[in-house]
Every structure is written in C-alpha cells, then in structure tokens.
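User: Hi! I'm working on a homework problem where we have to compare a predicted structure to a textbook description. Could you give me the structure for the chain below?
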Amino acid sequence: MDRFNVEKAIITTINRAKFFQKNDNSENVNPLENNMADLLKNFKKVMLKGQLPHQDVIDIANKAPERFYKLFWFNPNLEPDEEEANYKILEEHFKKGFCGVKIHNIFHMFRVPRDILKLVSFIQEYNKNLILFIHSAPDTSFFKGVSCRDIAKLAKKFPELRIIVGHAAYSMEFSIDVTLILKKYQNSYFETSASVSFGIYNIFKAVGSKRILFGSDSPVVSPIQLEIDKILTLPISNEAKQDILYNNVNKLLEFCQN
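Assistant: Happy to help. Predicted structure tokens:
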C-alpha cells in the first residue's frame, strides 16, 4: 500500500479451498481441462457451507485500524435451521467494526434479490449505514449470474441500502447495462476493479464521478498499478479522479471511521 501511495483499503477474506483434483498419478490437474460435468463437480468442492473465518481480516486491520475497513464475506445460502447461528456470526462481526457485507453468487449460487432478502433486512435493521458489496457475474452454462436488472430490483425495494456493484465494467456490455438500468438508483455505486477502461469512462459519462469507487481486487485479479493507471489515464478532470480514487469511498465509510 505504501509503495503505491494507497492510504486506506477495504479488505475481506478469501476462499482458501483448493480448486484442484488429483488424477491417478496424484498430480495436480486443472479442472478447466476436464469436461463440464467434472468442472461443476470440482467447483462444488470450493463452495464451502456456512461462513468463512475472518480472523485474518481482523488481524490485518488491528495492525493499522486507521487504514483498514473490514467487509464480511457472507454466504446467504442457508438452511432454515442454520440461519440463526449464521446471522449471529455476522452480528458479532458487525460489533467488531465490520462496515458491511460482500456476497459472491459464483461461490454460493444464490439469486438476487430473491435469496438475499433476509440478509438485506438484517443489515438494514442493524445499521442503515452498512454497505452491501455485490460481486458482478455473467450468466454461464452452469451458474446464474447477477444482472443489473437483479440489482435494480434490490435497489428499488431497499432505497436506503447502499449497494456497491463490484467489477461494474467487467465488460462493455455490462457497463452499458449499468448506465441504462442502474443510473437512476442513487443508492448504487460502481467499483472499478477488473473493469475495461472505456467501460469505466462510459459509466462516468452517465453518472459523473461521485458514485464511482476505485478498487483493485488485489492481490487476486490484477496488479494494483494497472488498476490505478486505468483511472489516471481517463480523459477526466483531476478533481473527478480524486473523487474516484479517494473521496467517494471515504465519504461512504465515514460512519466506520470512529
């Protein structure tokens, strides 16, 4: 962070389940080389039940609490008899200063908004300032993604919920959907990691600079310098770049700075 002049960061945990299988020779085999049935079978192995541990996030944040904001990666795909215990876990993390929730339907295969209504109601009842980070994902042959229309239904139903659309311009087509469908929902914000540069610019032209949030998704997806350069090279004012790189996120998380 110091090397790249990053003053603060939002952090969450990662899924450490191994996405590999063993062949007869006990060698690692990438499941992407197998057929679709084998891929789906192996993919299910990384979809852990219940909640991931977040002690790593707590430990990192404790080293420099003024620099880190914690998000809880929550699995909303629960059986009725599991809900009370899992929401208790989430509540305990809110008490520990977590500023919101991340959801990722590729790993947990839920539908938006249908399968997260209880989660959102819980978040809103606990603290209306808490944010919800939704990992954008396209439809594929073996899981349903999250579309802008899905997010729009959620934004309309919960107008006070602050929604961050992750990877908001991961493709030009998705960025166009963002501008056409989500522009009018002032409670939606657009995160830039793993996005195409012109897609980010397309969103900027539609909504301005105040609802775009810089993100790096480091160290998972791409080098942080590449993500920074996407913003610095946009044909927009320095003031707009400062909004995207710092001001907007800082304002969104003011409630978590005390």
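For your comparison, note the following. The first strand starts at residue 9 and ends at 11. The chain has a mean pLDDT of 90. Good luck with the assignment!
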